[in-house]
Design a protein that fits this description.
Helix content: over 70%
Mean pLDDT: 76
Number of helices: 7
Distance between the termini: 73 Å
Low-confidence stretches: 26-30, 36-43, 144-150
Order of helices and strands: HHHHHHH
């Protein structure tokens, strides 16, 4: 009886060691550092020299896009969400005859409103508010260029 337990424990230990050797090396090495090796798509608005957008910012941007597209097209927010699954904002705007510049202007108004609210409530400082608004003033030409490349 004791001999059977020792043999079973030995077999179990050897099989665990082989499993670790076969599958554990990938886990210990971590994710591959090769470009394009990740299965996840690249984050939106992330160029080769820009850091990835944090998840909270992506969520805020998505909600802002839904609100603005809903206002500009007259669709409900739920309908806009469904349309965004299969196409981007430029395609939706084209389908409803809304100029892309109107979308950029409305997005900027929403962003300015959010930045000012954040400064008033103390989430950001007055200097941070000024810096953000200054960077936003420099951005519209770049966004029009991105839209024309699509």
């Amino acid at each position: 009886m004791k001999r059977t337990s020792v043999i079973m424990a030995t077999i179990l230990t050897v099989s665990i060691l082989f499993s670790v050797l076969a599958f554990g090396s990938e886990l210990l090495a971590g994710p591959s550092q090769e470009p394009g090796s990740s299965m996840a798509p690249p984050p939106p608005h992330c160029g080769p020299h820009e850091p990835p957008m944090p998840g909270g910012m992506r969520l805020l941007l998505m909600c802002q896009q839904i609100n603005v597209l809903s206002e500009l097209t007259g669709l409900t927010q739920e309908n806009v969400r469904q349309l965004l699954i299969s196409s981007g904002p430029p395609a939706i705007l084209d389908a409803y005859g809304v100029p892309f510049d109107a979308f950029i202007t409305a997005m900027d108004k929403q962003s300015v409103k959010l930045v000012k609210q954040a400064a008033v409530t103390g989430i950001i400082t007055k200097k941070q508010e000024e810096d953000i608004l200054k960077r936003m003033a420099q951005r519209p030409a770049r966004l029009r260029h991105i839209k024309n490349d699509e």
